[in-house]
Amino acid sequence: MLLEAVYHRPRLNWSYAYDENTIHLRLRAKKGDLSEVFAWVGDKYAWDQTKELIPMTVFASDDMFDYWECESVPPFRRLKYGFLLQKGKERIWMTESEFQAERPLNPYRLFEFPYINRGDVFAPPAWVKDSIFYQIFPERFASGDPGLDPENVEPWGGVPKQDNFFGGDLQGVIDHLDHLTELGITGIYFTPVFAAASNHKYDTEDYMRVDPHFGDTETLKRLVDACHERGIRVLLDAVFNHSGSTFAPFVDVVRNGENSVYKDWFHIRKFPVHSENGIPTYDAFGFVREMPKLNTEHPDVKRYLLGVAEYWIKEVGIDGWRLDVANEVDHGFWRDFRKVVKQANPEAYILGEIWNESSPWLEGDKFDAVMNYPFTEAVLDFFIRGSLDSEGFAHAIGKQLSRYPLQASEVTFNLLDSHDTARLLTLAGGDKRIMKLAALFQFTFMGAPCIYYGDEIGLEGGEDPGCRKCMEWDMAKQDRELFGFYRKLIDIRKSHPSLRTGTMAFLEANRHGSKLAYERRLGDESVIVLLNNEDTAQSFHLNVEIERWKDLFTGETLRISRGVLSVKLPAYGFTVLGAADL
């Protein structure tokens, strides 16, 4: 066996408390190298009475490694453990410091999980696992109060530009909540709603004031209350990495330079503040001079922003925060942020915008989840760009599942497009069949799926600003068949707990292939998803134990023959099958 590839560490995604009584252990090994793996576990103070071998199973794989996993329920909430690795008749014991041929004589050199302290258990809000999110860009969703329109407002439905306005507001969202209820939405993520000069509002001018073109605090309260009455939770965008250039403290710095009492609220490299060759003399979001970076380590800045986070939870009852450019803010700030937010609302969802692997922020002391862009890229690479075959896609998903504790994967925010990317239908070249395949995987995978406003009725658009066009409310111009597909997909997800919290196993994923089959299982419930990401018909032949299956889209019943489930799918076809024998 290739011991150089074997890896474990007693922390992070490798050894963690899933709940107050259960510890998950994981181990990495060369793909296909080990035939069996056992965790050798026991209590360090009662080793001889409690030691046992627990079989581990491969829960994920990528192109290089298998990831083995087991769970242990220690009798005294602490664990000493090592691993027994087997390859045929070869047996190796793994301790904290070495590999050895003989079983260790005592537990002292094994790994240790010292104690499951309740306060250390990473416990994201349970409601997120069952949520269907919908992202709204307020300026482009709906206009409900023309009296709030900017002076330079343009007719609804015009060509979106970086700096134009169409008059979308919060009342418009209230007026169209029936649309979201009919679709089956249970959570809304709003891009910023606070006062700012731009149409996107990521250049905050006043964190304590709703943008006057959107409404006021009372409007936001009515919106949140109306959502809650419909079982819809509300997530607002917190832009704490940077402010806008019209933010009063920054205006003071521009005016007074080194004499400003707010000069340390920002990262100023040179006074007076200005731009040199297009680069500001202060840190900013990127090099955007209108978005100066805040010094979140400064006690006054921290006090102010944490007060903002607490205020809107208590004042209007929001259910959580999405955190913009979250990985550029110091970790100490986010630890304090979590304490403040969870004290205000223990069930609040804290979602970080990070586009890469994010395990340092998912240890239970900062975020509940991140926007799952590695998932996004894997889905687009397989279904849209064609740069991954089905085996490569399964590996990409397996690698992503291996990176985080299970409870983080269960509540991760799974999106396929947003205000920062081209729209899904546009990425799919206008082919709804391909779009549906990508959405189907999104809604049958663990984590909370999110629809970008308008995707459900066929809205198209390229990169910003094209992706930020006005919502189409003329039903004659909406793709109602696509709306029906999303509504059915959401209904299937809500009706089958295995699609939300069940295990994930790929049944077919081949090199150079475009067929994909996988099973989601929870207890006795099993759902199998078959996808044909090819422009010709393809047949599936899967060895399964359950006799009868029901197509969850059509209601048709299928039977296996001699233990084999055979299904032929048309070009870019799919089926979702639920076990019908139960």
From TrEMBL:
Gene3D superfamilies reported for this sequence: Glycosidases, Golgi alpha-mannosidase II, Immunoglobulins, Oligo-1,6-glucosidase, Domain 2
InterPro entries: GH, GH13_cat_dom, Glyco_hydro_13_lg-like_dom, Glyco_hydro_b, Ig-like_fold, Malt_amylase-like_C, O16G_dom_2
Signal peptide: none
SMART domains named among the record's database cross-references: Aamy (SM00642)
A GO MF term: hydrolase activity, hydrolyzing O-glycosyl compounds
Superkingdom of the organism of origin: Bacteria
Keyword hit for Nucleus: no
Keywords: Glycosidase, Hydrolase
Biological process according to GO: carbohydrate metabolic process
Keyword Hydrolase in annotation: yes
Occurrences of domain Glycosyl hydrolase family 13 catalytic (ranges): 135-493
Record SUPFAM superfamilies: (Trans)glycosidases, Glycosyl hydrolase domain
UniProt similarity note: Belongs to the glycosyl hydrolase 13 family.
Record's protein name: Alpha amylase catalytic subunit
Species whose genome carries this gene: Paenibacillus sabinae T27
